[in-house]
Design a protein that fits this description.
Order of helices and strands: HEEEEEEHEEEEEE
Radius of gyration: 18 Å
Distance between the termini: 12 Å
Oligomer: single chain
Number of strands: 12
Length: 182
């Protein structure tokens, strides 16, 4: 029984590592100045197969931009819930307000965000006045059915940084916490 649990945990860990490496390797490039200076992701896998994610992204060259687009991986059968979105202003982080689709054209102002769901991804756009010094966002979300369960193993496969994104990233940190009971 213990051998099966050990193999299950090892399988989960290997799946996570392989998934993370395939998404990250094409984006990291230390030879150029990066628009994204830090990309930190914390994932907590829950015993029910859902995940809680916090993505903290610091941009180094956003002067003059009025929005940031973040792509979130979505697989078939998953249910997303955006819990919180924050952006850094001079006075500190502020909580952003979600815009509904009919508000995008008239109400996109600093401290708001919009969400577009596509079959394979979520496009989350944060609106605000960004400068070189204050270009950070934090996004917290949950995903139901993110872990696939089989008879003797479970699989967690997620791309946090898309190859087709086209941005260079200086520092990447992705931490995955497994549940205490597996």
């Amino acid at each position: 029984m213990k051998a099966k649990k050990g193999r299950s945990i090892l399988t989960i860990i290997l799946s996570v590592i392989l998934s993370l490496l395939t998404g990250v390797s094409a984006c990291a490039d230390s030879g150029t100045e990066s628009p994204i200076s830090d990309y930190n992701v914390k994932v907590r896998i829950n015993t029910d197969g859902s995940i809680d994610v916090t993505e903290n992204i610091r941009y180094s060259s956003l002067s003059g931009y009025n929005n940031i687009l973040l792509l979130l991986d979505k697989k078939e059968g998953e249910e997303f819930e955006i819990k919180n979105v924050y952006m850094l202003q001079k006075e500190g982080y502020i909580e952003c307000t979600r815009l509904e689709s009919e508000q995008w054209d008239i109400s996109a102002f600093s401290g708001t965000y919009s969400v577009i769901e596509e079959p394979d991804m979520i496009r989350l756009k944060v609106y605000g006045t960004f400068s070189r010094r204050y270009g950070s966002i934090v996004v917290q979300y949950s995903v139901k059915n993110a872990v696939r369960r089989y008879n003797d193993v479970a699989e967690f496969r997620r791309t946090h940084i898309f190859k087709k994104w086209g941005e260079h990233i200086s520092n990447i940190s992705i931490n995955v916490d497994l549940p205490l009971k597996t």
